[in-house]
Design a protein that fits this description.
Elements: H1 30-40, H2 51-54, H3 58-73, H4 79-93, H5 96-108, H6 113-121, H7 131-146, H8 151-186
Helix pairs in contact: 1-3, 3-8, 4-5, 4-6, 4-7, 4-8, 7-8
């Protein structure tokens, strides 16, 4: 962005928003600047997505970005299955930007396209899934639909990923629920030229 006050040690960035006015480095408080440095200096290296919203409560935003970085990059779940969890939450919230970003990451990580397409449509996949994929899919769908999971669904997750995997799955879903809420409340825009990929569910 053309912000002449931006320090030389920070990469250029642009915050976007709708209801939450996009901040610039010049308009940020010291707490907001500290959070911005932490996000840009971390594994994400980008301020797109929920950060303009979270900066309006930088103490909450700082905790959230730390939590988010752990769930995104340090989950005990394989990347493809962590992305499946994110896509399930994005579909549940019809969070267009989350879906737009993470569908591509999921595909590159090897998540079956047929499964991604079924999640987008809110349908049960018509292709057989590997046991570990089925465990994450069933747990995520059941938790979102019923706010709890059955003994059998829980046991299947534990069998594939142990108790830590269950906690890490819930953590990822929790963080991306916050992200989806933030973006939907803001009315966060998709990048120029991108079109919504999720249709409203019946």
């Amino acid at each position: 962005m053309s912000d002449t006050t931006l320090p030389n040690d920070l990469p250029p960035f642009e915050l976007r928003g709708h209801r939450f006015k996009p901040l610039t480095w010049a308009t940020m408080t010291e707490a907001q600047k500290t959070m911005t440095r932490q996000v840009l200096g971390g594994q994400r290296g980008s301020m797109q997505g929920p950060y303009n919203v979270l900066l309006y409560s930088p103490e909450v935003g700082h905790l959230a970005q730390q939590f988010g970085a752990h769930t995104r990059f340090h989950s005990s779940l394989p990347l493809a299955l962590n992305e499946l969890a994110i896509l399930l939450v994005a579909r549940d919230w019809t969070a267009q930007f989350v879906w737009w970003i993470h569908r591509r990451i999921a595909q590159e990580a090897g998540l079956p396209t047929a499964l991604i397409d079924a999640v987008a449509l809110g349908q049960t996949p018509k292709v057989p899934l590997a046991r570990d994929v089925q465990a994450v899919y069933d747990f995520g769908r059941e938790l979102l639909a019923h706010r709890r999971v059955s003994d059998a669904t829980h046991a299947a997750m534990v069998a594939s990923f142990g108790d830590r995997g269950v906690v890490d799955l819930m953590a990822t879903m929790s963080y991306y629920t916050l992200v989806s809420m933030a973006l939907n409340v803001d009315g966060y825009p998709l990048p120029e030229g991108a079109t919504p990929e999720l249709l409203p569910l019946p």
